[in-house]
Write a structure and sequence with these properties.
By secondary structure, this protein is mainly beta. It has a domain of 114 residues: Cupredoxins -  blue copper proteins (Immunoglobulin-like). It contains 11 helices and 40 strands. Strands 8-9-10-11-15 form a 5-stranded mixed sheet, with helices on one face. Strands 25, 26, 27, 28 and 29 form a 5-stranded antiparallel sheet that branches. Strands 31, 32, 33, 35 and 38 form a 5-stranded mixed sheet that branches. Strand 1 and strand 2 form a beta hairpin. The longest helix has 23 residues. The structure holds [4Cu:2S] cluster, dinuclear copper ion and calcium ion. Dinuclear copper ion binds next to loops.
């Protein structure tokens, strides 16, 4: 029996995650035992996930289940890890605690595996003349009432001033937005409560606006803005003109406030200028007041006439500027919803602030902006980012000291009131120079204090030599007990800045294994086919429309619906392929030799590519995903007449 015969389901339904009767794993196993085995794996993984969330109150046995990093063959990880990809411009999905990389999601980059930047579907998302690189730092999942909701991921592009949305269900980028009135989008966060209505992002560099050659060397006229993007429409809701610059951003657990660090309150354009002041600041934004100001028409527009920009500079009722030392970097809210910590970078301190006091300040009950500060504990050299275990402890990366400092929030606040109390719990050496760190579930109400990742910028001699460019070292640390324990070194391709870990049982059921027919991602292609009278699930036809040729075909292992098609030299050719295999994991590819084209077509997906047939001759197209014993024979000819 061929794979193809095996793959057809009598009821014609799309196979799902729990239906292993048609899963490839079961097919390859070839026996009922394989099917049962796969089911049992799922169950065992679920139990481990549960045990993980109960560890605080559980006996040692549960703890061992949660804290073994050993994930044997066939077993699944308890957590998804979502990693930004830095200069690669992509996102990566890992399993934690194994730290196995599962998939990469191209976002701002060109990706030859799935044809990102090559297919028409991806080009629609990227937009015309899209830059071919990106620099992803901050990736966050949409939330509902402070819990991960498995709808979207959002990520910044520092390189080309963009923000992207990625659908969690298919792990595919579906929107990319360029941000006007800003240069270099750095910090990015989601509104947590009542749900992610806005995605906030920071323009880091100050430049003239419009940036068209005017005021080139007049930095006093440079400025930047804070941006709120509507998470559903991916259109800009509003922007806030600020003093200084914007580095990282954070949101509270009421939905009312957000804040951002500024390291360049000086408005400097040279390194020394940006380090002049002993204190820069954190700027807080009153979201309802900003919405009201926009509604009342109290705004200007700059580069984009549709984007309202309210004035949030010093003296505005929309913002609060809290002086903090010195060139602060990360800003991190505690999962109990009470505190927010700015990390001092050039100061050995972090600044602990109270969201409640921020609220009081906006209500006019506090006079001095510094009244929102509860404590300024000294932790060590180069504090960059802080994360939390949900048990009252904070973990701060010390870039210069190459350490993670574990400290207790309440004790630090007591010390801030003048009590003699040691708030530092432990310092753990990491290898080397950590930027972000992140504890499991720490950016939600469900912080579970199980695992901590330290994203180290330098790996030095920890791995085999691979030339002058070294991998980063993302270290996994067990924080479930009283002491942090370093568990594993994990080399990664440069340079994930940030990541988060979320429990598999919360979101795995939202991930599709097979595309829905007519999915919005490729709906425009289906609409084009319909206009041509094509049923993408069955038709194999060539439509000629002047010198435009549209070639529609299906793919089902081990054959394309068309063995050949003929065009004239100079024709604009669009090849549209629909994968009609019903088997989970049975992906095909379409690579056109010597034409620089490859694309992926997963089950029930339609992918298309447009190119000019500018070379006469015979050009073989072939399948690039090993789909069948006769995969190498899965090919056909494009005949280009001179
Ligand atoms: S930033 Cu890179 S270590 Cu872009 Cu969040 Cu701090
Ligand atoms: Cu289809 Cu290989
Ligand atoms: Ca500064």
């Amino acid at each position: 029996m061929s794979d193809r015969e095996n793959s057809s389901r009598p009821d014609g339904e799309t196979p799902d995650r729990n239906d292993h009767t048609v899963s490839r794993r079961a097919l390859l196993g070839g026996a009922a035992a394989g099917v049962l085995g796969a089911g049992a794996v799922g169950l065992a993984g679920g139990a481990a996930g549960l045990a993980g969330s109960l560890v605080g109150a559980s006996p040692a046995s549960a703890r061992e289940v949660a804290h073994s990093t050993d994930v044997p063959p066939g077993k699944l990880d308890d957590y998804y890890g979502v990693w930004s990809g830095g200069q690669s411009g992509e996102l990566r999905i890992l399993g934690v605690p194994s730290m196995r990389e599962l998939i990469r999601i191209p976002v701002f980059n060109v990706d030859g595996t799935i044809g990102w930047g090559i297919t028409n579907e991806s080009k629609r998302v990227l937009g015309p003349n899209a830059p071919l690189n990106g620099d992803t730092h901050h990736v966050h999942m949409s939330q509902t009432d402070g819990h991960y909701d498995g709808r979207y991921l959002f990520v910044n592009d520092k390189a080309n001033t963009r923000v992207a949305r990625v659908r969690w269900d298919v792990m595919r980028t579906d929107k990319i937005l360029h941000i006007p009135n800003a240069q270099s989008i750095h910090g990015l966060r989601v509104q947590r409560v009542p749900k992610t209505k806005y995605v906030f992002c920071n323009g880091e560099f100050r430049v003239p606006h419009p940036n068209d050659g005017r005021d080139l060397n007049d930095p006093k006229k440079y400025f930047t803005v804070y941006t709120a993007i509507d998470a559903e429409t991916m259109k800009i809701a509003w922007q806030v003109l600020v003093d200084g610059n914007l580095d990282n951003t954070e949101t509270d657990y009421t939905g009312k406030y957000s804040g951002a660090t500024c390291y360049n309150s000086e408005g400097g354009v040279h390194l020394a200028d940006m380090m002049e002041a002993e204190r820069d600041w954190v700027v807080f934004f009153d979201i309802p007041r900003i919405e009201a100001a926009v509604k009342a028409g109290q705004y200007k527009t700059f580069e984009d006439p549709d984007v309202p920009v309210v004035d949030g500079r010093h003296g505005s009722k929309l913002t609060l500027y809290v002086p903090v030392p010195k060139n602060p970097h990360g800003i991190n809210a505690s999962p109990d919803g009470k505190y927010v910590v700015a990390n001092g970078k050039l100061s050995p301190t972090v600044t602990v602030m109270s969201w409640e006091k921020v609220d009081q300040w906006f209500a006019g009950k506090l006079k001095d902006p510094r009244d929102v500060v509860l404590a300024e504990p000294e932790l060590g050299l180069g504090p960059l980012h802080t994360t939390y275990d949900g048990r009252g402890n904070a973990y701060t990366t010390l870039f210069i000291d190459s350490q993670i400092c574990k400290w207790n929030l309440h004790d630090a606040i007591r010390a801030g009131k003048g009590e003699k109390v040691n708030y530092i719990r432990q310092k753990l050496d990491v290898n080397f120079q950590p930027g972000h760190n992140k504890a499991s579930m720490a950016e939600t109400r469900d912080a579970d204090g199980q695992w901590l990742i330290s994203l180290n910028k330098f790996s030095k001699d920890r791995f085999l030599r691979v030339g002058p460019l070294h991998p980063d070292n993302d270290q996994l640390i067990d924080i479930s007990g009283d002491e942090m324990k370093l568990v594993s070194d994990n080399p990664v391709y440069c340079e994930p800045h940030d990541c988060f870990m979320l429990r598999r049982d919360l979101v795995e059921h939202k991930v599709k294994q097979v595309w829905d027919w007519g999915d919005p991602f490729y709906a425009e292609t289906v609409a084009m086919a319909k206009k041509d009278g094509i049923d993408i699930q069955s038709d194999n036809k060539i439509i000629r429309d002047g010198n435009k040729v549209r070639v529609y075909m299906t793919s089902a292992a081990p054959a394309y619906g068309l063995n050949e098609f003929e065009v004239n030299k100079g024709d604009e050719v669009t090849v549209v392929i629909t994968n009609i295999d019903d088997v989970e994991d049975l992906t095909h590819g379409f690579c056109l030799s010597n034409y620089g084209i490859n694309m992926e077509i997963s089950p029930h997906e339609t992918s298309s590519v447009t190119f000019t047939a500018d070379k006469a001759g015979v050009y073989w197209y072939y399948c690039t995903f090993f789909c069948h014993a006769l995969h190498l024979e899965m090919r056909g000819r494009m005949l280009v007449k001179a």
